[in-house]
Amino acid sequence: MTTIYVHDNNQSQNITCSDGSQGVLRVSKMNNAVRYNFKFYSHAHLGFWLDKHQFYDGKTLIVKGVLENERLEIKFVN
């Protein structure tokens, strides 16, 4: 499982992962709801999005890919 380290400040930010890969978290509003879009540089991991109620410390998820599924965990940092 790969851990994604993020700040819980509802702002777009650069992110790092436990395997050393990096990416970006973009926070946006869609139909008056907050959406968190995760994208990773150099295709290290599959991109995905979460709604506000899905974005919390310790959240684990499986992102389904064409060749394999990936297990990820969200970890809040200061």
Describe the structure.
The chain has 78 residues and is mainly β. The protein has one domain. Helices cover 0% and strands 59% of the residues. The protein contains no helices and 7 strands. Strands 5-4-3-2-1-7-6 form a 7-stranded mixed β-sheet, with no helix packed on it. The chain is globular. The model has no long low-confidence stretch (mean pLDDT 94).
- Helical percentage: under 10%
Could you spell the SSE succession in H and E letters? EEEEEEE
Number of separate strands: 7
Count of domains: 1
Net shape: globular
Using only C-alpha atoms, the radius of gyration works out to 12 Å
Unreliable sequence segments? none
How big a fraction of the residues is strand? over 45%
Q: What is the end-to-end distance?
A: 22 Å
Average of the residue pLDDT scores: 94
| Strands in their spatial order, largest beta sheet | 5-4-3-2-1-7-6
Can you count the helices? Answer: 0
What's the oligomerization state? single chain
Structural class: mainly beta
Question: What does the largest sheet look like?
Answer: 7 strands, mixed
Task: Detail the topology: elements first, then pairings.
Blueprint lengths: L1 E6 L5 E5 L4 E9 L2 E8 L7 E4 L8 E5 L4 E9 L1
Parallel strand pairs: 1-7
Antiparallel strand pairs: 1-2, 2-3, 3-4, 4-5, 6-7
